[in-house]
């Protein structure tokens, strides 16, 4: 009886909505728990923690969600509120909000299936780049059936609660009483805004458990707030001068000399004996090419048969790591040779023009540097970044209809992309100029569609087929390149932007960052394996070393073939790590640090090594400092 009296108040509909929100959130959390049950460190205490903290985050989310409705309920007069027209308008809004919750829940299940996390900053990207994302969803999932199911569920929920909802829209209330109710309701989201962050739900070192304790809708809005994290505000730090003094020791090599005694200036002259080689560089950055796909690393599905052969004819780096889990992170590291600063990639940030990139170096040396992309390069700000950092941009808009044999939501197929890359190379060759082409593939991306009859796995059947098609396209490209005059003088590089999956039980699962780096140049480089621990930031200095090129450097990476880096920098948009000597130091945005001993795929917590912690702080603190003080520019 008391509950019905509460529902009869003007704010009764919001209370009813809150219960529906909690019920749907509980169901989503349970479904996700069942989906990855084997990966959650579940026991009775952990179970209670996941659901109790989860309910708390659900309540915080509800408090944010209802703010516009409370404002409306505060000011609408009783005469309008109790009218027949208002009742039907209220029905529509109530059904729509339930539909949003149901749709969000369905979307979150698919998002979890792809990334093994609740909604995060990736989902924010998906909201921004609607054309690619909507096309991708339509090509990947049975949307008519999903939408029909969503409508049926939403309608069914409304039918169940309609009688109770009607109680809330036949009430009268005084304005002063409404003000008091609204102030009470607004205090909760206000307090949450200033006191709660993503790390508040970290109940364990098991990532799956922490993600389950979150609320997906809350995560989306938190990602908008945290698209860039100030290093000194959120992470353990040291004095800037001390950090740069240590950095100069870490990046010093036998063939480098600092150009200034200013400790904050990392510029140094890099010299190699002899003349520049003027080799062409054809960089093939492959979407989601995990090292685990290769038979050399234990792959058993035979989906990279051509690349498995190519590595035997190449310089193959077997202990190489991606810096992040997004394409733009790979691009950032490969071009800037810079650790992954917290928040969004520099590729997507403002004031990223004229930076110290491989493209700017090679362009200054007389090269034609081009970024060649299969899709629309406005996605993730790629065209702007590359176009303002030494590269000519070639994207989907530069393909003639006659040059496209197949395309999907993300762009033209890899074969068409490589054909365009050959055209760009031919043009540079005719000009008598060496070239550097940064090629970014897209075929190994959901919806995993590609031209039929190319491989023995049908299109649109999963990632294995997409990987095998990319493998086929790369082999075809290298065969056809041999017919071009520039082939003998060209270094071909095959590297991943990131792994196919980044999900793991720990903050930064190291094995989910392991990628191949293949340098193929049969007329230039002898085949061999290199097992030096290194990462994508070491790519640019290594390539310039193969070119025997003298240059002034600000790069954080090293020439792997000259001096072994013996460290890898890896991270997400919030958690940043340094891997060296089988130890992983992980920094979290609450000025907290974790340490793990790495043994194969196992990561066991261990005591923090102070020297390695100092190195980890140094890399990330100085990288953030240089970017924010605009001291990582090509000309200064």
UniProtKB/TrEMBL annotation:
Residues that span the membrane, as ranges: 12-35, 55-76, 88-112, 141-161, 175-196
Endpoints of the signal sequence: none
Record: residues binding substrate: 445
Protein name as catalogued: Sulfatase-like hydrolase/transferase
Pfam family name, one: Sulfatase
Active site per the UniProt annotation: 327
UniProt domain Sulfatase N-terminal: residue ranges: 280-548
CDD domains documented for this protein: LTA_synthase
Xref: SUPFAM superfamilies: Alkaline phosphatase-like
């Amino acid at each position: 009886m008391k509950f019905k009296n509460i529902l009869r108040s003007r704010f009764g509909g919001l209370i009813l909505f809150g219960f529906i929100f909690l019920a749907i959130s509980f169901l989503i959390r349970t479904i996700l728990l069942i989906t990855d049950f084997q990966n959650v460190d579940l026991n009775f205490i952990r179970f209670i923690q996941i659901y109790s903290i989860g309910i708390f985050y659900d309540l915080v989310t509800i408090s944010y969600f209802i703010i516009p409705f409370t404002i409306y309920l505060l000011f609408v007069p009783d005469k309008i509120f109790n009218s027949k027209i208002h009742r039907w308008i209220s029905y529509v809004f109530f059904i729509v909000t339930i539909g949003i919750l149901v749709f969000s829940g369905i979307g979150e299940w698919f998002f979890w299936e792809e990334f093994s996390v609740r909604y995060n900053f990736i989902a924010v990207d998906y909201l921004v780049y609607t054309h690619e994302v909507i096309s991708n969803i339509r090509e990947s999932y049975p949307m008519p059936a999903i939408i029909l199911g969503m409508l049926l569920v939403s309608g069914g929920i409304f039918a169940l609660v309609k009688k109770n909802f009607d109680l809330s829209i036949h009430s009268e209330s005084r304005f002063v009483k409404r003000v008091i109710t609204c102030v009470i309701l607004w205090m909760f989201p206000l307090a949450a805004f200033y006191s709660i962050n993503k790390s508040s739900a970290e109940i364990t070192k098991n990532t799956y458990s922490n993600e389950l304790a979150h609320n997906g809708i809350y995560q989306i809005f938190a990602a908008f707030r945290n698209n860039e994290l100030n290093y000194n505000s959120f992470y353990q730090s040291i004095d800037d001068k001390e950090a740069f003094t240590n950095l100069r020791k870490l990046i010093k090599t036998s063939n480098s000399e600092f150009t200034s005694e200013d400790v904050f200036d990392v510029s140094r002259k890099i010299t190699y004996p002899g003349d520049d080689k003027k080799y062409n560089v054809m960089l093939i950055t492959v979407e989601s090419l995990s090292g685990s796909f290769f038979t050399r690393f234990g792959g058993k599905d035979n989906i990279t048969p051509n690349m498995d052969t190519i590595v035997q004819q190449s310089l193959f780096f077997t202990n190489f790591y991606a810096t992040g889990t997004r394409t733009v992170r790979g691009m950032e590291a490969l071009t800037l040779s810079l650790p992954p600063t917290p928040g969004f990639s520099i590729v997507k940030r403002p004031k990223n023009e004229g930076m110290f990139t491989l493209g700017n170096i090679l362009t200054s040396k007389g090269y034609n540097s081009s970024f060649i992309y299969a899709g629309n390069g406005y996605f993730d700000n790629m065209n702007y970044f590359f176009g303002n950092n030494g590269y000519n941009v070639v994207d989907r808009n530069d393909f003639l209809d006659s040059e496209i044999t197949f395309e999907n939501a993300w762009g033209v197929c890899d074969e068409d992309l490589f054909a365009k890359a050959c055209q760009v190379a031919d043009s540079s060759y005719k000009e008598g100029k060496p070239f550097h082409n940064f090629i970014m593939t897209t075929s190994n991306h959901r919806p995993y569609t590609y031209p039929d009859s190319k491989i023995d796995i049908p299109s649109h059947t999963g990632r294995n087929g997409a990987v095998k098609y990319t493998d086929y396209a790369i082999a075809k490209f290298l065969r056809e390149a041999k017919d071009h005059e520039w082939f003998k003088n060209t270094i071909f590089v095959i590297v991943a932007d990131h792994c196919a999956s980044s999900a793991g039980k720990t903050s930064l699962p190291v094995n989910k960052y392991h990628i191949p780096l293949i340098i193929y140049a049969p007329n230039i480089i002898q085949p061999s394996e290199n097992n030096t621990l290194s990462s994508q930031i070491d790519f640019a200095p290594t390539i310039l070393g193969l070119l025997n090129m003298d240059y002034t450097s600000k790069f954080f990476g090293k020439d792997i073939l000259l001096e072994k880096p013996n460290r890898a920098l890896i991270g997400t948009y919030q958690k940043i790590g340094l891997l060296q000597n089988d130890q992983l130091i992980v920094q979290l945005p609450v000025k907290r640090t974790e340490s793990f001993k790495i043994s194969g795929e196992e990561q066991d917590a261990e005591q923090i090594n102070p020297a390695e912690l100092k190195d980890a702080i140094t890399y990330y603190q100085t990288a953030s400092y240089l970017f924010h003080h605009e001291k990582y520019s090509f000309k200064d």
